[in-house]
Design brief:
Radius of gyration: 27 Å
Number of helices: 2
Distance between the termini: 20 Å
Strand content: 25-35%
Structural class: alpha+beta
Number of strands: 22
Number of domains: 2
Length: 285
Amino acid sequence: MLRSMYSGISGMKNFQTKLDVIGNNIANVNTFGFKKGRVTFKDMVSQTISGASAGDGARGGVNPKQVGLGSQLASIDTIDTQGSLQTTGRVLDVAIQGDGYLAVDDGNGGIMYTRAGNLFFDNNGFLVTSSGEHVLGYEVGDNAPGHPVRNAAGNIIARLKPIQIENIQQVSNLSIEENGTINYSLGGNNLPTIPIAITRFSNNGGLEKVGENYYVATAATGVPNAGTPTNGGAGKLVSGTLEMSNVDLSEEFTEMIVAQRGFQANTRIITTSDEILQELVNLKR
């Protein structure tokens, strides 16, 4: 069989994957905190017909002769650029201006991360996400219960724990500062909570999407660096706003056209290869 037919098949599969990613980007164009994906390709192994040779005094060298065998996926990247901020005027809507992530308890002893800041207080006074997971705050000290935060030496320096306000029904004058502290009034007293935790990673692209606007850390992200907003370059919280998706529709539509034409070109390769094989079969007649 012709090598070009298998090269065309590999190209079709890759452009199908590219269209899948583009479709997901467009579907999430209005998803708060969504980070778009990008597909890149690389060539597959090439078959060497003849190797290279060096020249001598009588004749020059010869370059290698190789035939490529198609393409394959190089990566599906998550592009974590800052999305635009949409003003909502709601105090518990918070956007992160920077490259950090909110930390939430997954309910099974683990931590998930998100950029979607549409938060609520439940009936027990816990600060939760739209799907009910507890948002974690940053409490300095090594004795408090919660998820441990360690320094470079491995020592526990703080804990991540759910943020809770007692008697939430009687609370008034809620506000969220840039450093993540939630201020409120209760019984005539002005009180603060522990600051909302924010986490940075050495490689944000290594985060794994698990659905519902959540990510989990992987071996590629490096060790999560938890802290508070405005410290360590993780960014600040902007109350009354939400971060929109960073999907650019004009860019996605352009990539869609490129993927469509690339898919069509690869189908044409298969059609042409089939016609050549048909001519070979007809030689018998």
